[in-house]
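step: validate -> pass
step: tokenize input -> pass
step: predict -> running
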Amino acid sequence: MEPKATNALTSFLLPVDGSENSLRALHFAGCLAAGLGDRVRNITLLHVLAGHYLSEHMANVDFRTKEILESGLFRRLKEQYIETTVAPILDAAEAAIREMGAKTPVARQILDGNPAEKTAKMAEEGGFSTIILARRGVSRAREVLLGSVTSTLLHLPYHPTTYVVGRKVLKDGACLVPKILVPLDGSRSSLAALREAAVIARSSGACLERVELLRVIDLARYPERVAGGERPEEEAGRILAEGETVLDEEGLPRGCVKTNVVYGRPVEAILDAAREKDATLIMMGRLGRSAVRDIVIGGVSSEVVHRAVEPTVAVVCADGK
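step: predict -> pass
step: emit ->
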């Protein structure tokens, strides 16, 4: 049995851009921080400029050169843009977090550069436990080709838990995550995801309806294991029993814990279960694989993130494994 996670959900990094999608992520983060109380020590709002403030003023100038970047004109344009555009975005972001009841100290950071690269670097250097961001309305292929923030963060060598907030964000006093789905495969990362799910479930109190533990049996991957003595159904029972023990240790009442075994391709089975059970949060473990390899072999956690647009999907990694 894995040791209990001690750093999960203690420091939040929130990339913000003023969009409606970003607002959903802020509502989720604020509600989560409010429920977790003192556990969340700090929240940092991050806005990456990416050079947009120069476009209308210096359309014919290569502002990547050192001379332009160090010029007085560049500094004035940057200061003006931050004052008139970025500061209001950050003010509104903090107000959205406070509106959901969060009392955690909120810091602000403004950086220049590629949003994906800057977010990843700040996450690692700041030692954040948690990144919360909204999904973009583009295809999975385009996200990878454009180097989106989501795709980049899911393949960092440093592994904060990444929450990709879906469209199903409950408001007006409703429980943030009443129905949590946790696919388990017996790995350290899936157990870490389960423990983090338990922390969130406890913070939801009486409005929590269900934590469902799901084991998907993919028969195409089992011939050697059957020959070795442990049948797929036996392995599934063992993994789910271990999951129930973890939730017992975390203090969740057995009445809200359900288990389910299904046969099929893991990605499709998880997505089907999320739809059938109306899951509001999917908590998944991940493997430390490159983005290119994930595309080639169809990494389960990455594919679920890109295809499950309604619920929020969280990807957790334990020690890079």
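step: describe -> Confidence is low (pLDDT under 50) at residues 138-147, 288-298.
step: cleanup -> pass
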